[in-house]
## 1
Amino acid sequence: MAENGNDRAGVSSYSDVNDPRAVVSRSKFLTGATIGLGGLIGVAVAVPVLGFVLGPSFTTEDWYWTSFGAVDNAEYKKGTYVPVIFERGKLGELDRRVAYVRRDGDEEFTIVSNVCMHLGCPVQFKTTGFACPCHGGQYDVEGMRTAGPPIRPLNRFEYKVDNGNLLVGRVFATEEIDGQVVMTDQFKLPGEPVGGLLGWLYPVPS
Ligand code: FES
């Protein structure tokens, strides 16, 4: 057996702890192991966090055109809203929604979601606007936030008129632009901002 842990000529096993080469080698090994372990811990922490942040962007709402009846239904009046209860999704009665429908013209409507844009409580129409019973959120007749904690105007539904029927489709976020409520092409949940950096954190579902 050769000195310093050499068990055959030219080949070193670094078995002698007093050999400086063995110390350097162990140090490198520990450094590499620490970096590797740190990386694994980082991945273990980052994956759930990324899932939490990005998860909403990959959720989509079930939707399809839903008939709200004849477009000339006399209940749809100008200047006021009528609530329409309908089912949307796979849960039948458990997945009921409420939309407020206002006639703006023969075949023109404003269809407002009753979901408060603070935490999602159901708002109610009260002649001068919409009111949320949970935390005092207030909206005007266009669904524009006027008071309380909601962060943006009420969502609105897209619609079309087909064969004399009023058909209602997806619900979209709205935003206030120059004092007007403008419907976007994005679906956003209550509390999710539409624009800016925070809006980017809740990207549009595909
Ligand atoms: S949920 Fe409507 S104000 Fe809070």
## 2
Amino acid sequence: MTTTHPTLTAEEEALLPSDEDVRHYAEHGWYLSKKLLTDDEVDALTAATDRYYEGERDRTLPVRPPKLAYWDPSKGPVQRHNDYVHVEHDGIAAILRKPLIGAVAARLARADEIRIFQSTLIYKPPISGEPSNIVPWHFDKHYWSSSSSERMLTAFIPFHDCGEEMGTITMVDGSHRWSETGADDTVVRHFAERDRDQLEEMLAENAAHNGAQIRKIPMVIPKGHMSFHHCRTYHGSGANVSGRPRRAISLHLQDGDNAYREFPLSDGSLAAYNHDVLVRRTPEGRPDYADPDYCPVIWRDRAQQEG
Ligand SMILES: O=C(O)CCC(=O)C(=O)O
Ligand SMILES: [Fe+2]
């Protein structure tokens, strides 16, 4: 079988995380990258998402999944979330599929292959008191119980320098290594549907249970750089008091081994993900989280490609 081999230039190789960076990620659960996108690529992303917000689509989802985030102008000046932008817009996808992003993720996750899992376009309007701008503490694996992998990770990609005044993403250092306490399955509900104080409390309880201090680290991200976080790293973000919109994409990534699994919830139902009503089936009849239309491969190690 011939596959297209994503390759890196020598300049790109120099942008990969070092062994020390990979150790840091394993210990702390987050990594601030080097400049993985050129200014031209970031500007192209801004322009493509401007057109997306104006309604431009290359295709639309054939059905609307139950928990789809899909801001449209009728929702007004709240924080915007739009899922599946890599599916609906080729200009956005072209940049998100950059092999270098996958290669960085592969190093961090110690994986041979990286596929897109989801992409969410995010816009925090510059309204300092806007409650929807606050992202309560959560970790992404809570929404991914139907995924078998414990190594999934997210790249948070702002379209501009992004600091604390914009409400940048903030990591709870080392929290991916905590064991959970008191977790019931309400945590699988998205943070937008949940009480903020309850999530703050859950974070404090989990820290205490693990004898850990809560150390919150805002990711100060220069344009073209991105932060990566492990799927069990607690994170959230605050108000945008900058006077400018905070624009970004959360690029959720899966390692090659990830697959759908049955995960029973306490009410007897099975955990589900929006993909389950969209992607093709495996020969066993399960949702295929490797369906290239929704979950394209963006990186495969050379050894794996030639094997
Ligand atoms: O928008 C933010 O600050 C947080 C985004 C997020 O939850 C994520 O990237 O997983
Ligand atoms: Fe998240």
## 3
Amino acid sequence: MIEAVCESIPLPGGDVEVARPRDAESLLSEESFDHEEFLPYWAELWASGVALAHDVSMRSLRGKRTLELGCGLGLPSIAAARAGGRVVATDWSRDALRAAAANAERNGVAVETLLCSWAAPAPIVERRPWDLVLASDVLYERRNVDQLLAVLPRLVDERGLVLVADPGRPPAADFLDRAACDWHVVSRESRRVPRVSIHRLRRRV
Ligand SMILES: C[S@@+](CC[C@H](N)C(=O)[O-])C[C@H]1O[C@@H](n2cnc3c(N)ncnc32)[C@H](O)[C@@H]1O
């Protein structure tokens, strides 16, 4: 049995309760590391997730088809559902999806969860176009940059918006350089969380 802790995150629309495993490192297993160097990053609440949830909470998303990539514990998805979005939270970890679904329920919002890896994105590409795509702290590995640059144009059309929150991880600079060919990118510091930027991407027409 994994021991959980619950944290209350203050957001503009009111507090969100997020439960997570007390000790993320205890979830490490050699077997899952051997499979694509899988690490239990989903089990922590990252500063970028708080920053993105804060940004999303300031928006009106009434009925907007919203997709979160690498949702982890699901905080931005919960904020988006509270703002009126129809939200699908995705991750390649089943444990993350279980935690995100439980957190959505804990906060009384509807969030659909869907297992999907960026390397095999058919389940989310089939359901395009998305009005809004959310991703927080997903640019921590070089391989993530290639996978996300390949998948994002397949998820939104020229009306769609992508919001990426990042704490200045080195691969994010490469992502932003390369994204500038196909996307208008506007970046600004989070108003809520120091040292986290929110990058807004729209497809160039
Ligand atoms: C650093 S955590 C961030 C979690 C959450 N977005 C947050 O900000 O708290 C990265 C997340 O991306 C997920 N992830 C990593 N690589 C992935 C991939 N190739 N496909 C789908 N999800 C992935 C991880 O399981 C994890 O939940």
